[in-house]
């Protein structure tokens, strides 16, 4: 069975595909959500159910920032 790519792998692949472009953690989170809506669907539903009025992009932004060294 094939494993789903991790957030680190998805972010690294997106950065490699956009070499030379700088992203903030927020921009990277939004780009990942746009490029992989199915991958983050369950996370989006769970997060937004617990945090009404907040976007899952905020949570992804925090996760990307926390793992920035592994992503780079």
Record the SSE blueprint.
Layout: H1 7-17, H2 25-35, H3 41-50, H4 56-66, H5 68-71
Helix pairs in contact: 1-2, 2-4
Structural write-up:
- The chain has 72 residues and is an all-alpha fold.
- It contains 5 helices and no strands.
- Helix 1 (7-17) crosses helix 2 and helix 2 (25-35) crosses helix 4 (56-66).
- The longest helix is centred in the first third of the chain and has 11 residues, at 7-17.
Strand-residue fraction? under 5%
Tally of individual helices: 5
SS elements, strand count: 0
- Give the termini distance in whole angstroms: 27 Å
Shape: globular
Sheet/helix structural class: mainly alpha
Largest sheet: none
Helical proportion, percent range: 55-70%
Low-confidence stretches: none
Mean pLDDT: 94
Q: Helix-strand pattern, N to C?
A: HHHHH
CA radius of gyration: 12 Å
